[in-house]
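Hi L.,

You mentioned the student needs an example of a multi-chain input paired with its predicted structure. This one should do, with 225 residues in total across all chains.
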Amino acid sequence: MSDVIVLDRLGRTFATDPPVPALVDVGLRVGRGDYVSIVGPSGSGKSTLLNILGLLDLPDTGRYCLEGVETTELDDTARTALRGSRIGFVFQSFHLLPHRDVVDNVMLGEVYTGGDRAGRRDRAIAALDRVGMGHRHSFRPPRLSGGERQRVAIARALVGDPALLLCDEPTGNLDSTNTTAILHLFDELRAGGTTLVVITHDASVSRRASRRIGITDGRLTELAA
Ligand code: ADP
Ligand code: MG
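Structure written out for the whole complex:
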């Protein structure tokens, strides 16, 4: 089975004074349908890694192959198109528009994917069904609980049918009940074949993944599952 992510001797150093080596000699392979958690303390390089995996930032050295495409050789236009069509993002702070209803918010997930406009609403509704939010179509985000908002954000990330779902502290703003619900949803997505990379500093979140990777000072180590 082909790998979704292959990182080979990847490095990223921020050109501050003094320079900050945020990622050092990173190697990683993630297969289709894997559910990987990356756990490490604040400042260890988690967001830097996620930004590179999400094609929002480029490494200074090394290679990043996404579904067989060597991304470090793409121009900006091709990289943006690949990001829009193959990657979904989930963030700690949801990033939903408060004055738009749930279906509109999810439809916005397709704006950058290049999907055809016809059927956009149907695909949004199908994504909401996948995350168990089919009963809240006309709600606006301020009327939803934190866990429900994160479900809507996950639906928005899923509409383009991405190969890879990247989550940065997805339960960081949630209480334990809502955290449990989101972790259950991740289990379901993984069972459905979605590849998940979940960045967290919460050990209870990282334990749910099929594979745990630690990051310290920009270096990865495989942890016992
Ligand atoms: P984490 O997400 O694990 O908290 P980050 O990836 O955000 O860590 O940061 C890793 C290191 O890189 C930290 O030392 C941070 O201060 C530094 N860093 C992150 N982004 C930048 C930037 N744009 N410019 C300079 N230094 C940065
Ligand atoms: Mg971070």
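You could point out the following to them. The chain has seven helices and ten strands. The mean pLDDT is 93.

Best wishes,
N.
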